[in-house]
Amino acid sequence: MKRIYLSLPHLDGRERELLIQAYESNWITTLGPQVDAFEQDICRKVGVGHAAALASGTAALHLALVMLGIKNGEEVICSDLTFAATANAIFYCGATPVFIDSNRETWNMNPELLGEELESCAKKGKLPKAVFAVDLYGQCADYGPISAACKKYEVPIIEDAAEALGATYNGTFAGKFGAMGVFSFNGNKIITTSGGGMLVSDNEDYIKRAKFLSTQARDPAPHYQHSQIGYNYRLSNLLAAIGRGQLERLDEKIARRRAINEFYRNALQEFPGVEFMPEASYGRMNCWLTVILITPKEFGADREVIRLALKKENIESRPIWKPMDMQPVFNIEEREAQGARRKGREAKEEHKGKDIVNSTSKRYDARLVGGEVSEDLFERGLCLPSGTKMTEDDLRRVVATIKTCHKIKPK
Ligand SMILES: *Cc1c(COP(=O)(O)O)cnc(C)c1O
Question: What are the pocket residues of ligand 1 if the criterion is a CB atom closer than 6 Å to any ligand atom?
């Protein structure tokens, strides 16, 4: 039985041609004409002024915080429902994350909770230094109210658009909504360079400094001289060539991912207890991954029954991101205070062998605002195979397997 993956790289354009050009040009390094051209291509596509191609999205997140001068002991607000890379970047700076719950309408950061938290921070006289807003699964966060709240307290936004290249909010492309925006070109993202990322901004100064810091912060001297600590974060010229080929086909990729999303919606609409991640009226998702939400009482089986049935059929699916506040690596007082209900759940998970916790590993302090919505989404949400390489037969196989789970009682 052919394995169906969640999201495979799909190189169907000029990637090979551009890669060979780069190879033959002998720019086998972390700068070169393909890097410059890839940056320009992204700027043109997203409608943003400046871009720095980097080794990963995580590197871009880290540099964005460095650019804002985030220091030890300061706080950075962050979406609770995200991939660990967003939170990790905060710890690279020695800062403390404050995780904000999602709302049901967008699954992204709840703008009201953000506003309340900023107000309460202002009263305490300790405002966070930045807000990391994540565009989850290719849907922009609600930047109208998020930007208004941040503007009121003069806290800069960094947009983690790692999953959202090509998505829009009121007609503007993802990546444009903060002081800086971040894209990822990891292997499973909507376009890939195998590994890579991009920091974008309309502020040229940020991008100039990002390029400087990402190439070991070398002062302009004939010898190696450094008056700042730098990083080795630049993207390889060979990988940039692949990225350019990928980007040329972005519109086709989004159209195909949307069609896949449409296929699942049509095929599963007859089943009670199956919902899809809602597309907010303010924009268009890139449909990077199609995510369903299962209500076990109505569907007659839970998310895990479906995941395991798919696994048995050699089909990869994944629970949605486990919220940051539920990660064992973080010490969160608010979570402890939520008490017995959460403890009970954690014990159950450990029993299922889901959480492999190294109890001797260091834990890091974080804060939490809300958390009920992201927890519920995690427990009921499942990402379905959504790669553009999928055939109609593959899609039918996934749907047929999900259908067999209807009314299987959870164990
Ligand atoms: C993939 C991802 C990242 C990290 O990007 P890398 O290129 O893998 O470092 C960061 N944030 C989110 C939300 C992501 O999905």
Answer: 56-58, 82-83, 85-86, 134, 160, 162-163, 184, 186, 197
Which ligand 1 atom lies nearest to the CA of residue 56? 7
Mutate to test the pocket of ligand 1, among 65, 135, 136, 184 (most ligand atoms within 8 A of CB): 184
Percent of the chain at pLDDT above 90? 90
Q: How far is the CA of 163 from the centre of ligand 1 (A)?
A: 7
CATH number, residue 196: 3.40.640.10
Q: For residue 107, what pLDDT is reported?
A: 98
Mean pLDDT computed over every residue of the chain: 94
Q: For residue 240, is it within any domain? A: yes
pLDDT by residue (tens digit) across 147-186?
999 999 999 999 999 999 999 999 999 999 999 999 999 9
Residue 38 vs residues 31, 52, 127, 147, 301: alpha-carbon distances, Å: 11, 9, 36, 29, 46
Given a contact cutoff of 8 angstroms between Cβ atoms, the answer to whether 149 and 114 are in contact is yes
Instruction: Confirm whether 190 is domain-assigned.
Output: yes
State the pLDDT confidence band at 357, using cuts at 50, 70 and 90: low
Of all protein residues, the one whose alpha carbon is nearest to atom 5 of ligand 1 is 57
Q: Tell me how many domains the chain contains.
A: 1
How many whole angstroms separate alpha carbon 317 and alpha carbon 334?
31
Please give the distance, rounded to the nearest whole angstrom, from the Cα atom of residue 85 to the centre of ligand 1: 6
- Please give the pLDDT value at position 351: 46
pLDDT of residue 409: 54
Taking alpha carbons only, the member of 338, 328, 329, 340 closest to residue 368 is 338
For ligand 1, pick from 56, 79, 186 the residue to mutate: most ligand atoms within 8 Å of CB.
Answer: 186
From the list 103, 97, 175, the residue with the least C-alpha distance to 138 is 175
In a domain, 25, yes or no: yes
pTM: 0.95
Instruction: Give the distance (Å) from ligand 1 centre to CA of residue 14.
Output: 25
